[in-house]
Design brief:
heterodimer; A: alpha+beta; Aminopeptidase; 9-stranded mixed β-sheet; globular; B: 6-stranded antiparallel β-sheet; flat
Chain lengths: 261, 371
């Protein structure tokens, strides 16, 4: 696997000094946290390599078309795949892609172009229906699409710091207006019954979760974060503490919310 | 013995006599590896007694007692050989417990200019310690320079200083702290290699430069990185007889002295008088009065133009001092400055001494300051 250490790939030099230093220190803390559990975070940009990793882990995950090399060619300019390596072998992953929206996100999804690209006709798949309001509002902008989170069994603790590292990388290395992802409702919802969609907030660090994106029989929530929101969360002291939530309520930003064990 | 490169001199003295480092090691009872490491700058543990032993062995080998002293003269760069008695030379050498080679060290200056040092040259290892993380495969030196705005510095045993920083990322405080460090330690530095980004030392090494070049370059970088407050200066050159009353006496007394500096010292009338030298057309601060509670170490030994703050004022002072020396006459400026809506009026007096290239300067605020 052709990958480079996360800190070598992380480059925040286009950001204002204060933001650059703070994000960089958060990245250092998260990398240190991963090393403490024996994982080495490395970054690749090849979707073909990610496909090999996903195949090895196929019992647990299905390959999202956005990260599928059969439909999209990834380059370092628009694709980052973060792997957690244990003894040189990738055991966890998370990724992001920088995508330009010619039309609204909803149109792109419903026409299947978003999932399967424009170079070839979409496969004979089930229709996509989008009702999430934000998907209609997002158009003519760059979005950072975050996904491809998976881990081998026994590596559960890796995902949370890796998602935050992906967010930091996207903030530092790319220019975009909104960070977008999808998650099945039961995944986005659980964690804390008092706070709906707390996993989307606390683990994935998104600002909102909206219904719905339906692809065939499968139903997803649309998760979005404006860039400013993600920047604010990343600047908060608790962002690099994995036991604290990634996104924080405005009334207690200094404390953070301790996630249920 | 500052300024004397003993290792290079020893090496040259041996080469002139066609003595190999293995033979030299035998002469002083050390292992050849140790001598080789000394010549490669990997260790500074060369004792003066070793040089003495080699010199004596050379003299014995050649059956020429004067050869010992010739050898020592060459190593210690003592030019006027006849004026030094052999006993003096022995005393000098024995007094040297260790040679004055710089101790290898490395430092990181963080974004606030705080230095963390380590008596070794593993800058990456020190970065991991500061960042409290286990070492990994990444180029942590480049990361710290590029993203954290740190400035790294490593000095090896032969006086080569490597400076690692990213010009657009390094903070003003870090650059200022590095310049302060260089001002204090430049004696032990023979040459400086500035690595803008330390990703690959072998590829990215620029040409070496002297410590003073680096200090000047850092000064320019600090100025470029300093956001300047908007200021509005009005400068008028005035005749000396327009000077306010008690100060006119001071000036008369100053002229009565053998030089402006001694005259002012004798007069002891001005609350603050600073001393500058004009070198290559630029004013360098030699002594700051304590009257303004200015941090002396930030100013003394520096070009006036390199001041990290008050860029306009620095340019004005530089012009005043160089003009005064060029004209070789006392010059008086009246300055009017608007700061935050308030106008302040100042006088500046410059008393030159063309023979020495020294200018004494005294600024003071006038009592009448309209709001």
């Amino acid at each position: 696997m052709k990958s480079i250490p996360f800190l070598d790939a992380f480059s925040a030099d286009a950001l204002p000094a204060q933001l650059r230093r703070t994000l960089s220190m958060k990245a250092v803390r998260l990398v240190a946290a991963l090393r403490e559990v024996g994982l080495e975070p490395e970054v690749g940009s090849s979707l073909a390599e990610y496909a090999i990793y996903a195949k090895e882990n196929s019992q647990k995950m299905s390959l999202s078309p956005v990260f599928d090399d059969a439909y999209h060619g990834g380059s370092a300019a628009d694709t980052m795949m973060l792997y957690g390596l244990r003894n040189g072998r990738a055991v966890a992953s998370c990724g992001a892609r920088l995508i330009w929206l010619d039309t609204s996100l909803a149109d792109a999804m419903e026409s299947q172009r978003f999932w399967f690209g424009e170079d070839r006709p979409p496969p004979n798949c089930e229709a996509c229906v989008v009702t999430a309001p934000s998907a209609r509002a997002l158009e003519h902008v760059h979005i950072a699409w975050v996904g491809a989170g998976s881990n081998f069994s026994g590596e559960k603790g890796a995902i949370l710091p890796m998602i935050r590292l992906v967010n930091l990388y996207a903030l530092a290395n790319w220019r975009w207006t909104t960070c977008v992802g999808i998650a099945e409702p039961e995944i986005a919802y659980v964690e804390n019954r008092e706070r709906p969609f707390s996993r989307a907030h606390d683990i994935y660090g998104f600002a909102s979760a909206e219904a719905d994106i339906r692809r065939g029989k499968r139903r997803f929530m649309l998760l979005t974060s404006p860039r400013r929101y993600l920047e604010t969360c990343a600047m908060l002291p608790g962002y690099a503490e994995v036991e604290l939530a990634a996104s924080l309520p405005a009334d207690r930003p200094e404390e953070g919310i301790r996630r249920p064990a | 013995m500052p300024g004397v490169d003993l290792v290079s001199n020893l090496r040259a003295a041996l080469e002139r006599r066609r003595i190999t480092f293995k033979a030299a090691a035998r002469m002083c009872g050390r292992s050849p590896d140790t001598i080789q490491r000394i010549f490669q700058g990997r260790t500074a543990k060369l004792d003066a007694q070793d040089i003495l032993a080699i010199a004596s062995a050379v003299a014995e080998e050649r059956s020429d007692p004067t050869e010992r002293d010739r050898f020592l003269f060459e190593v210690f760069e003592i030019g006027n050989k006849t004026s030094i008695q052999h006993a003096d030379l022995d005393r000098r050498i024995v007094r040297l417990e260790r040679l004055s080679l710089p101790q290898p060290t490395c430092l990181w200056f963080d974004e606030s200019g705080v230095a963390t040092r380590h008596p070794r040259t593993d800058l990456a290892g020190l970065a991991y310690e500061i960042l409290k993380m286990r070492p990994g495969r990444e180029d942590i030196v480049a990361f710290a320079c590029r993203n954290l705005g740190y400035v790294g510095l490593s000095l090896d045993a032969v006086g080569t200083l490597r400076l690692y920083y990213e010009p657009n990322a390094a903070s003003r405080q870090a650059l200022t702290a590095v310049r302060d460090w260089l001002l204090e330690h430049s004696d032990g530095v023979r040459r400086v290699l500035r690595n803008r980004s330390a990703i690959n030392e072998a590829v990215d090494l620029p040409e070496s430069e002297t410590p003073s070049d680096t200090i000047a370059a850092l000064g320019r970088r600090i100025l470029a990185a300093t956001p300047l407050p908007p200021s509005e200066w009005l400068v008028e050159r005035r005749r000396i007889d327009e000077m306010p009353d008690p100060l006119r006496d001071t000036l008369r007394l100053a002229h009565a002295g053998s030089s402006p500096m001694t005259g002012l010292a004798a007069a002891n009338k001005l609350r603050a008088a600073h001393v500058y030298a004009v070198i290559d057309g630029e004013a360098v601060s030699l002594q700051m009065s304590s009257a303004h509670d200015l941090p002396t170490k930030h100013y003394v030994g520096r070009r006036v133009l390199d001041r990290p703050t008050d860029r306009d004022y620095a340019a004005l002072v530089d012009r005043h001092l160089t003009e005064s020396l060029r004209e070789n006459s006392a010059t008086l400026y009246k300055l009017s400055l608007r700061i935050g809506g308030n106008r302040r009026n100042y006088w500046r007096l410059a008393l030159p001494d063309r023979d020495s290239g020294i200018v004494v300067s005294a600024p003071w605020e006038t009592p009448e300051n309209p709001r």
